[in-house]
User: Which sequence fits this backbone?
């Protein structure tokens, strides 16, 4: 069992940046194990093996810590978008599918972190790290849509933003329902051999981009 002196010694041996990353890693582990209620500054310090004052020194308060942790999530999400787009190539529908799968895949892999990222009442949106990370993830989403269907401004720009919003709404809603275990009945009604990935793929196919570059929705009334 570590003593306060041990923790203080360990804290002093950390490089400033390394201690911050260690605290965020400890916070994420606590978050995934017990959700937001498990996160306190003292619990994070204890999990990281540092002095109780260390989290406050780096993040100010719990809101600051949660906001910085959410920023980590948005940075990872943006990286997942970029990797998915690179792997998908230039075909518009492949890019849409890859983007949607990357979004849902992130939510499934890190459900508690994903939920925290959209808990605005627990976050300080004015913190530069969170603001910049959120903007980067949003830009990656818009860029994928814009590359699938370039626009020159005006009405076309509005349509590009509308498509980005439609895709985000679809995959975000699906992700929330999935990680909250609200899709059991619908998934159970699928034919044998089909699962959440099958359903997501069908949903993304329903908003594919047609050969003219417009959004083609199979859910639209004929």
Assistant:
């Amino acid at each position: 069992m570590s003593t306060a002196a041990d923790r203080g010694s360990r804290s002093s041996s950390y490089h400033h940046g390394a201690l911050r990353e260690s605290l965020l890693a400890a916070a994420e582990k606590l978050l995934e194990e017990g959700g937001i209620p498990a996160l306190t500054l003292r619990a994070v310090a204890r999990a990281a093996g540092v002095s109780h004052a260390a989290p406050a020194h780096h993040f100010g308060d719990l809101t600051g810590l949660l906001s910085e942790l959410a920023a980590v999530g948005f940075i990872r999400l943006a990286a997942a978008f970029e990797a998915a787009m690179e792997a998908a190539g230039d075909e518009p529908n492949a890019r849409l599918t890859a983007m949607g799968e990357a979004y849902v895949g992130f939510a499934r892999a890190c459900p508690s972190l994903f939920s925290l990222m959209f808990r605005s009442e627990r976050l300080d949106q004015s913190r530069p790290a969170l603001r910049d990370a959120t903007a980067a993830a949003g830009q990656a989403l818009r860029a994928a849509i814009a590359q699938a269907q370039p626009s020159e401004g005006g009405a076309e720009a509005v349509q590009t933003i509308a498509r980005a919003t439609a895709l985000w709404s679809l995959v975000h809603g699906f992700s929330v329902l999935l990680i909250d275990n609200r899709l059991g009945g619908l998934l159970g009604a699928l034919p044998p051999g089909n699962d959440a990935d099958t359903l997501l793929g069908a949903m993304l196919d329903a908003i594919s981009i047609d050969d003219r570059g417009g959004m083609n929705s199979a859910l639209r009334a004929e």
